[in-house]
Amino acid sequence: MPFLVSDYSWTQTDSTVYINVPLKGAKFGKVDILSTDEYIKVHYPPYLFEAFLFEPVDDDRSTAKIRNGVAVITLQKRTSKMWEHLMINTSDKDKKKEIREQSLLKYQEKLSAASRSKAEKVQTQKKYALETMMKLEKEERDSIQKMKDNEQEKTTAELAAWQLRQKQRAEDEAQVKLQSQEDYQHKKKTMTEMQENGCSDGKNYKKRQAGLSAPRLTGNIQVTFTPRVFPTALRESRVPEEEEWLKKQAEARHTVNADAEELMDLRKEDRTPDWLKDKGDKFFGTGDYLSAVNAYNQAIRLNRKIPALYSNRAACHLKLMNLHKAIEDSSQALDLLTPPVAANGAARVRAHVRRGSAFCQLELYAEGLQDYEAALKIDPHSETLHADAQKIRDIIQGTAANPETQ
């Protein structure tokens, strides 16, 4: 038979009741606390504390905690008033038994409801993860189909252009052949006329022909070509996009957004975005992220067209846990890294990974997975990207524990 605890203490306010039950050296894992609106039980063998409350309380807002060897129970009253006693004044064992049994039933129903709610939440998360994966797979299929359609259209257009060139070449050859035949007939007719008119007329004919201009001299013109910046074969490259990217890069190096008055306050070297970027990179390398952010801020004031400034500042914000700012800067860098070409592939991968990391730290795992998938499309051979993307999928599917709860 358990020993009833009598050395408890309690206090109250108009809205709250506080009960302190000493645990007498009991370990945390061996303390069983049951709380309902009318009944409180703290059982730590061989001791037992029971309280048949003076009035019902709001069980949903009540709490029980164990600290420093004491169970602290906080009960929220349903009505704001002072109680005369903590427990009801009765020695009726049957009434206490009835209250105890009803409380146990309520507690079991509460546990069952919580279990059902948890199961429904897990099911909802699995459904959301499945729908997200299906959506990503559909987008990937649509993207592949679009690439196939574009390639087919390109091939059809190239075939039509080749056929047109072949037709034009055949027409040109026919025209040349016809012109050659006409020249031959004209020459033959001329020789015939010369023979019929005699030698004197032939000399006069030559004199008339002598008045014509002499044929132009032939020669070779040396032609040199500027080497291509992108080392890919011409048939495999995206020339318009590459030229547009080079044009944007050239414009970014000559664009200054700061006012003239602001520039006058800066040293000469501080007016160069590239110098400020290198300065920010050095601060980042030494772990001085705030100074790095200030350097990138100053560089962006001078030039808002350099994507590396936003991407590097996003990395600093990640270290400083400014996650929303990291997402904003990564998005700005991706907007500037257009059109997507081989030359800016590595920069786009870094921007996607930094934005995806910020999303995941905000527990927006579906959005983070989309950025990692986008990075994998650019660099499909990166083992690190594959591993990180798989970890995010495991979290979404519920097979990996949330790092914050470990």
From TrEMBL:
TPR repeat start-end pairs: 349-382
What are the entry keywords?
Answer: Cell projection, Coiled coil, Cytoplasm, Neurogenesis, Nucleus, Repeat, TPR repeat
The molecular function terms in GO held by this entry are: nuclear estrogen receptor binding
* UniProt xrefs under SUPFAM superfamilies: HSP20-like chaperones, TPR-like
Q: Is Transmembrane among the key words of this record?
A: no
* Domain of life of the organism encoding this protein: Eukaryota
Q: Does the keyword Repeat apply?
A: yes
Task: Name the GO terms of the biological process aspect.
Answer: determination of left/right symmetry; epithelial cilium movement involved in extracellular fluid movement; heart development; inner dynein arm assembly; nervous system development; outer dynein arm assembly
Q: Which residues form a coiled coil?
A: 119-154
- Main localization, broad class: other
* Subcellular location(s) of the protein: Cell projection, Neuron projection; Dynein axonemal particle; Nucleus
- GO CC annotation: what is one? extracellular region
| CDD domains tied to this protein | p23_DYX1C1_like (cd06469)
**Protein's recorded name:** Dynein axonemal assembly factor 4
